[in-house]
Amino acid sequence: MMGAILSEEILKQYQDLCQKADLFLEQHQANEAIEEYQKALAMLPEGIWSCSSYAYTGIGEAYQLLNDYHHALEAFINSYLDDQQFNPYILMNIGICYEEIGDHKRGLYFLKKAYDIDQRVFEGLDKYKNML
User: Fold this and answer.
1) pTM for this structure?
2) CA distances (Å), 95 to each of 28, 41, 67, in order?
3) How far, in Å, CA of 74 to CA of 29, rounded?
4) Rounded Cα distance, 12 and 129, in Å
5) Which candidate, 56, 67, 50, places its Cα nearest to that of 21?
6) How confident is the model at residue 7 (pLDDT cuts 50, 70, 90)?
7) Helix H or strand E encompassing 29
8) Span 72-90, pLDDT tens digits
């Protein structure tokens, strides 16, 4: 829960699993990355934890590598709900997922929100930047 404190031991284990997942993601081993991020999330006690947004974001990125935009969207929305409403990277990825599943109205909404906060997140993503 936000405001509650995780034990150092749980936080360290969470971070270690996320680092392992990050390495899988960098190597484009999406399924392995998802599995490690999910293990990290499973370590957290019931409730909403701001640190969980990191794992949810990684899961979203991994599903994007698999072109599974429905599951990616679900993960990015979980990150968004975990206190990331003003994170342009999360907003942009929600917009990308909506675009890729054909919901252009919602896609454009989130892409514009991200662009208004920080245009730099669109670097190298001209396909989506040009929609604005």
Assistant:
1) 0.91
2) 22, 24, 15
3) 20
4) 37
5) 56
6) confident
7) none
8) 999 999 999 886 678 999 9
